[in-house]
């Protein structure tokens, strides 16, 4: 499968990165290698790498520091690619961007559609979130963020 080899290399580097513990120059270098492999695998269309690319641009810090790569538009871009290839968690995560209008036009119908797709693809979190949003709609008539 195209991209699989680069994805496995990225996972090896990622494991080394987290074994180091505290943030060091070596970890920064390892992250750079990891990102290179993930990006290459994503451009080869490997679905897990597409999802991981979305995560790289999330508002989640690395070892306690804010993510300097945070970019909601890039999250939407990569999660959309992964979701379109059937990645359940990417669909779940993408729904939140549409619900908030973060990195894309706010669209509650699209957000609910994505949660449904996530649930249909087998994500337990997607199932839980979809049921919760349906309950919100039934109780309030509104999509609650």
List keywords for this structure.
mainly alpha, 145 residues, 7 helices
List the helices and strands and how they pair.
Blueprint: H1 4-19, H2 25-43, H3 47-56, H4 72-84, H5 88-100, H6 108-120, H7 124-140
Question: What's the quick description here?
Answer:
The protein is mostly helical and 145 residues long.
Query: What gross morphology would you assign?
Result: elongated
Count of helical regions: 7
Quote the distance from N terminus to C terminus. Answer: 38 Å
Q: What is the number of E strands?
A: 0
Report mean pLDDT, rounded to a whole number: 90
The value of Rg in angstroms is 17 Å
Question: Could you explain the architecture of this structure?
Answer:
The longest helix has 19 residues, at 25-43. The protein contains seven helices and no strands. The mean pLDDT is 90. It is mostly helical and 145 residues long.
């Amino acid at each position: 499968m195209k991209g699989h080899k680069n994805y496995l290399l990225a996972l090896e580097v990622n494991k080394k990165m987290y074994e180091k513990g505290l943030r060091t120059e070596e970890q920064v270098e390892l992250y750079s290698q990891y990102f290179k492999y993930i990006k290459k695998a994503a451009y080869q269309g490997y679905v897990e790498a597409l999802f991981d690319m979305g995560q790289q641009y999330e508002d989640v810090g690395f070892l306690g520091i804010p993510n300097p790569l945070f970019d909601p538009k890039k999250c939407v871009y990569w999660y959309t690619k992964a979701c379109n290839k059937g990645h359940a968690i990417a669909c779940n995560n993408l729904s939140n961007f549409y619900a908030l209008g973060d990195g894309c036009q706010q669209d509650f119908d699209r957000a609910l559609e994505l949660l449904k797709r996530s649930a249909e693809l087998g994500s337990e979190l997607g199932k839980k979130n979809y049921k919760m949003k349906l309950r919100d709609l039934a109780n309030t008539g509104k999509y609650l963020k």
